[in-house]
Amino acid sequence: MTDQMIHADVIFGYARLHYGICCDCCNGYCPCGDWTPEPDVPLVRYTHDGREWISDRYLAFDAATITGIPEARVMPAPTAIPKMPSRATGPATGAIGDRTLAALDRWPALDIADSDVETMHALTIGGEMVGYAMKVTRFNHSGWLAAEHLDRARIAASKIDAIGEPALLTVARILNTLLKSEEQ
User: Fold this and answer.
1) For residue 5, what are the contacts with CB-CB under 8 A and spacing of at least 6?
2) pTM for the complete prediction?
């Protein structure tokens, strides 16, 4: 497995109460100090293809890459996914969703590729599959990005300090708005 590891609360996005810098309006009190991150859906632990996986039902990661896995959130394998990928197969195609973009933003070593399941992306580090996520099939919001624009979006995201959401997701929203305006 990879020597790169990340904490579960970071990669699944539970570690941040708010973005930006604390202000003086609270008279020295910051609610971050009292906040305990809680996921909007519990993490599940299951075995697939001889590896143990941790998932929030949107993203899944090899448990060997995750630290801080909360034992209280371990549940039986999800049954809603008919087929799960086992390997990366080539460059990413299709659309990348908002949760995947946020994970790519939170874990800079993470990359994305196509997998051996047509409807899912492989999440990779150094070409090795360490996770997977669904490809976007519904485009009813701006929080997605066509895979061919990911490199350009990463360059743009590195140049901005987004307030309110991960920089890569902000760039995806901006790029989608720009592309829609060019179509009209």
Assistant:
1) 65, 66, 67
2) 0.76
In angstroms, the CA 55 to CA 118 distance is 19
* CA-closest candidate to residue 96, choices 149, 155, 156: 149
Distances in Å between the alpha carbon of 164 and those of 46, 95, 152, 169?
A: 33, 22, 21, 10
Q: What is the C-alpha to C-alpha distance for residues 131 and 123, in angstroms, rounded to an integer?
A: 5
Confidence of residue 19 (pLDDT cuts 50, 70, 90): very low
- Taking each helix axis from N to C end, the angle separating 150-158 and 98-106, rounded to the nearest 10 degrees, works out to 50
Q: Which residues of 59-81 are buried (b: 16+ CB within 10 A; e: fewer)?
A: bbbbbebbeebeeebeeeeeeeb
What is the C-alpha radius of gyration for the chain, rounded to an integer number of angstroms? 17
Reading the block at residue 32, the tokens are 């971050």
Q: Would you kindly state where each structural domain of the chain is located, as residue ranges? A: 6-183
